[in-house]
Amino acid sequence: MNILKFEERFPDEESCIFYFKAKREQEGVVCKKCMGKDHYWLHSKNMFQCKSCEFRTSLKSGTVMENSNLTLRKWLMAITFISATKQGFTALELQRQMGFSRYQTVFDLCHKIRVIMGKRDNEYKLEDMVEYDEAYVTKATPAGKKKDLNRGRGTQQKATVAVMAESTVLEDFKTKELTKSCRYFKMKKIEDLKSKTAEKLIKDFINKDAVLQTDDSTTYAKFEDFVDVHVTELSSTKEGKFNLKWAHTAISNLKSDLRKYRMISERKLQNYIDEFCYKLNRRYFGERLFDRLIIAGIQPYWQSSG
Fold this sequence. Notes:
By secondary structure, the protein is of the alpha/beta class. About 40% of the residues lie in helices and about 20% in strands.
């Protein structure tokens, strides 16, 4: 949804309240006090009231917008800008587009939205055939410390990101040529390259019945204990490049996308990765991405610490 359609759909705060109330009722409102799910709507208060204990829930309560002083319309407008582009949207650009005076307000808003993107994608596992590789992305480093840091694969100026891609091999009926299609991706910042770190990712995010494809690193030696089949190949060979085609493509696109941000701290890096991955997994959604992101923000956000 572009900004012109937003103005038509949400001309004022009242239209935003009407839309957001309907979405909350559709997803189900949960009472924080008694966990009840049946509520009245108090028109004069713009709040839900639990039928069991009469506890009142505001429209923002239990959502990504909880405790925010921003109006619903500003939240929906921010989500419109962020969901309208396939690339990442910087806080500085959002501040300029929406006319915010304080950068910190916009910065915090952007990261709250990125957090719900990550939580939404954490709800499912990859299956069938999955590629696994690691990437090294630049993180913010104080200028005074750069000269003292290591170089090369273990450089402290780079953060390590595990990349998983759910791909399927396709064969052309006439030419018998093999290609690969890809559905979903997962990307997680990891602290080290130890085998136990990689094994935990496999167990947490990949179905145990999957066929896993990696390069022949010794780090991946015991992956067959966690998946149905583990296929290894030198990444420099033709077969290796084919097996990890989508993981490598995603790594290249991730690095390109992150370049637009001037400085990314390691503490916030996963949030930026989550935005990239969330949009990549919904690359064919088009205008539906706005509504899907609203639904993600309405989920019992306050119940989940992940």
